[in-house]
């Protein structure tokens, strides 16, 4: 089977790229390998391409300012690519690409199954309505499935697949009862907006008892977040590590013990960092935002959820950790995400794609 993954150019640094790369390499390396390529719609050549090592890809470039004519050029370029490559399946990694691929399919008169595979909340993306151009949809969370349904897509055309995480042999333990609670934040620095670091700092500033916070990540609000920590007079409890190429190696080698990973986002596409933490046995305290956390967190087993607007409940869970009132079993945390481990995920993904492709051929 020939599969094309299609989308607008990405940064090259995010969790989405990691998932896409893992899926493509899994499809290429299975017992009966699929042929996989990528096709990008680009405005410039700024995309970091290190993550594409070992993956065949083509870029369509257009700097035309008027969106109608820019997209028309992309459609024409993809039309030519389709005629030359004749894929059996096209998987769009963003919503706008669903429309571009659909129009190119019509123009090229090629026959293939068109999947959407959006990695971000549709309610916070432009052109979300373009998702209806796809024949079938791969939803990475229950929240995104609901958003696709809300746009008039029948449930039978949606498959809930989640995202994969690598099983880890290493376990990162929690601090002992006589040690200071140590929290971890890993992600972009957005003071309010999506990540709401403000809520994270406000919550911790209200905790009764000693704690430490390690922050791994960078972003446009990095200095603003640091300044707010000083304003709350908790800056002496926070270690700012900045962006790290291998963040979990830093956690293992330098931080060594973690009470819980914290996520205070107003929305997510899935919340991969929760799965990554749990794969090391680290429980998580997360806002129950759209979308993802509700699919991952099992209350009291691998962490806790709190309503995004109710900071008092976030503080309650922090206090439990700081005062060692609840102890999580690291192995139980790891086991709780069994359905997300790569070997299970890739088997499920392959079966869904093959099944939908075969049905369309009947």
From TrEMBL:
GO MF terms listed in the record are: glycosyltransferase activity
For the keyword Transferase, the answer is yes
CDD domains assigned: GT4_GT28_WabH-like (cd03811)
Per UniProt, the keywords (alphabetical) are: Glycosyltransferase, Transferase
| GO biological process terms, semicolon-separated | carbohydrate derivative metabolic process
Q: Per the record's keyword annotation, is Transferase included, yes or no? A: yes
For the protein in the UniProt heading, the enzyme class is transferase
EC code(s) of this entry: 2.4.1.-
Q: Which residues form the Glycosyl transferase family domain?
A: 178-312
Which SUPFAM superfamilies does this one have?
A: UDP-Glycosyltransferase/glycogen phosphorylase (SSF53756)
User: Can you give the residue ranges of the Glycosyltransferase subfamily 4-like N-terminal domain?
Assistant: 14-165
Check the record and name the Pfam families matching this protein: Glyco_transf_4, Glycos_transf_1
Gene3D superfamilies, per the entry: Glycogen Phosphorylase B
Q: Known PANTHER family for this protein? A: GLYCOSYLTRANSFERASE
Q: What is this protein called?
A: Lipopolysaccharide 1,6-galactosyltransferase
* Source organism: Buttiauxella agrestis ATCC 33320
Gene name, Swiss-Prot/TrEMBL: rfaB
